[in-house]
Each structure stands twice: as structure tokens, then as C-alpha cells.
Design goal:
Helices cover about 20% and strands about 30% of the residues. It is α+β, with helices and mostly antiparallel strands. A five-stranded antiparallel beta sheet has the order 1-2-3-4-5, covered by helices on one side. β1 and β2 form a beta hairpin. The longest helix is centred in the C-terminal third of the chain and has 18 residues.
């Protein structure tokens, strides 16, 4: 099942989704402006839902488009759920 991302914070570009005991977050970073500062693009990360662990950046981040970041999250979810 594909992740269903929703906007997590109203005035900052942060989206989140969860499925099968994993949480995923996509943020938009830019060198200037509101929100997170860094290389421009969509940064994707994941972590186990019920563990106190830091997030793990998804390889390839930052992505040029939200769709690319979303596809990477779905790919990682498929990989993680095959392992369990």
C-alpha cells in the first residue's frame, strides 16, 4: 500500500506519513526563506514508529520533486516490510 502523505505543519513545508510501524517525513529545504535551510530540494527520512531513534535520511535526498521523494519513501517501505 502506498504511503498517504499529509501536511504536518501549516506554514512550513513538512509532510508526514506512517505505515507498518514506520514513520516517514518529507521536508523542503532551501538556502533562504522560511523553513529548513540547506541544499534546495525535498529531503526524505524514515524511522521506526515505536522506538526512540533518530530519523534515517533516505539515499538520494534531497530530491528535485516531491513525487521523487514520495517514490523513494514508498520504495524504502517495501524494502523494510519485506525484512519483517
Amino acid at each position: 500500500m502506498a504511503l498517504q502523505f499529509h501536511r504536518a505543519v501549516e506554514h512550513i513545508e513538512i509532510w508526514s506519513a506512517s505505515s507498518d510501524h514506520f514513520s516517514f517525513v518529507i521536508t523542503y529545504d532551501s538556502p533562504t526563506g522560511p523553513g529548513f535551510h540547506g541544499r534546495p530540494g525535498y529531503l526524505a527520512s524514515w524511522r521506526p514508529l515505536h522506538q526512540s531513534r533518530g530519523a534515517i535520511k533516505i539515499g538520494g535526498s534531497p530530491f528535485e520533486t516531491f513525487c521523487e521523494a514520495e517514490a523513494a519513501c514508498n520504495f524504502i517501505l517495501k524494502h523494510l516490510t519485506k525484512q519483517n
